[in-house]
Amino acid sequence: MSVYTAIEPEELADFLRAYDVGALVRYEGIPDGIENTNYFVDTERGRYVLTLFEWLPERDLPYFLELMAFLAEHGIPCAHPVADRAGRYLRRLKGKPAALVQRLEGRSVREPRAAHCRAIGDALARMHVAGRGFPRERANDRGPRWWRETAARLRPHLAPEDRELLEAELAFQARHRHDALPRGVIHADLFRDNALFVGERLTGIIDFYYACNDVLLYDVAVTVNDWCSDAAGRLDAARTRALVGAYEAVRPLEAGEREAWPVMLRAAALRFWLSRLHDLHFPRPGEITHTKDPEVFRRILLDRIAGQEHLRAVLTA
């Protein structure tokens, strides 16, 4: 959630006339995140988030917006897109695809406790179960092929020890396939800054713009790596058990998923180490931008490589 495209008040006011939301009262850019331009928008009738899609292919946008609407209508706490007077979720602003969605109450939690992790685990499992009924499909465009292509672009910019780590992990992941594991709709980016809380109550999951159809366990691993890691990159046992335990109370993991757990945690760490390295070395221009530290996921990846038995013990407990 960055601001790459500046919008003038009269441009936004004109855009909002296509919706039954009343006149513009105020708006401000949202600097967090890295992919899209986002604004908080207050009107006479409500509070919203406006997103301008800077890089995502327009053909993928109906999947994201319809998924958000579907999940919200099936009891998952996420922002419902706002339809214009013609019933469309997607319009254009400043020559770019744009969508208006409900603004949910609450704020992100930087230092989650076990109660926050239980709430996220429960919601993630319910999202995976509800997603079985979603009719659209979309491939994961940040999967193994993207890892290899991004690694090739990054190699000239990396220190020797980072190149060695990257090559070794790509080779390790290439030796493992997960075709037999349960698949479905995944969020693929359920970090702490993509969930909102009031106290310990989860009020919303946001930013579905990496959502796709892939291995469900991968989504759990992405979430655990962010919510349950300490500053050194090691998994906090209490938070991990709270998150996974709440998840399994809704959707118990299969034996094959338990076996694949350490590999999947490494895969999730590799994906976000690569994306943060890419954003560091190939930044996008913007009015307000935010680049996240790749060293965080380098530490997480190294811990997951070193701690295979610890990872299994945390899960089985």
Weakly predicted, low-confidence segments? none
Taken from the alpha-carbon principal axes, the silhouette is globular
Treating each run of at least 4 consecutive H or I residues as one helix, how many helices?
10
What is the tally of beta strands? 9
Give the C-level CATH assignment of the largest domain: Alpha Beta
CATH topology of the largest domain: Aminoglycoside 3'-phosphotransferase, Chain: A, domain 2
The SSE order reads HEEEHEEHHHEEEEHHHHH
For the biggest sheet, the summary is: 5 strands, antiparallel
User: Class by helix and strand content?
Assistant: alpha+beta
At the fourth CATH level, what is the homologous superfamily of the largest domain?
Aminoglycoside phosphotransferase (APH), C-terminal lobe
The percent of residues in helical segments reads: 40-55%
Mind explaining what this structure looks like?
The protein has helices spanning 9-16, 61-73, 114-130, 144-154, 160-174, 216-227, 237-250, 255-281, 295-306, 308-316, and strands spanning 24-29, 37-43, 47-52, 91-93, 96-102, 183-186, 195-198, 201-205, 212-215. It is α+β, with helices and mostly antiparallel strands and 317 residues long. The protein folds into two domains: 9-102, Phosphorylase Kinase, domain 1; 114-316, Alpha-Beta Complex (Aminoglycoside 3'-phosphotransferase, Chain: A, domain 2), CATH 3.90.1200.10. The two termini are 36 Å apart.
